[in-house]
Amino acid sequence: MWVRCQDFEPLNLRDPFYAMIEDAPLLDGIEVFYAYEGATNLSWRMVLYRGHSLSKLHRFTQRPEMMKDIRLH
Fold first, then answer.
1. What's the predicted TM-score (pTM) here?
2. Long-range contacts of 47-51 (CB under 8 A, 24+ apart)
3. Cys-Cys link to 48, which of 1, 28, 32, 36 (CB 3.0-4.6 A)?
4. CB atoms < 10 A from the CB of 48, how many?
């Protein structure tokens, strides 16, 4: 059963992934957006968020447009 975290603002991501790395949350997903203002076609990029808790996540990196894969070592 999933329970919504009250102090977490939902992110507009597709195919999200959540992990804990060194006791800190890491969240990534695919951000879908219009390629440019007035465009009718969509583009996408993978974005990663991290922080000390879900309520304090911040975007720390993103891939170039139309790339979905980031590998963390």
1. 0.72
2. 47/13, 49/11, 50/21, 50/24, 50/25, 50/26, 51/24, 51/25
3. 28
4. 17
Place of tokens 């996540």: 57
What is the DSSP code string of 27-66? EEEEEEEESSTT-SSEEEEEEEEE-SSGGG-EEEEEPPTT
Residue 24 token pair: 């800190």
Q: How many CB atoms lie within 10 A of CB 2?
A: 4
The tokens for 50 are 């991290």
Rounded Cα–Cα distance for residues 73 and 4 (Å) = 30
8-63, pLDDT tens digit by residue?
778 889 988 888 888 888 889 999 988 888 888 899 899 999 988 777 889 988 88
DSSP letter for 16, please.
E
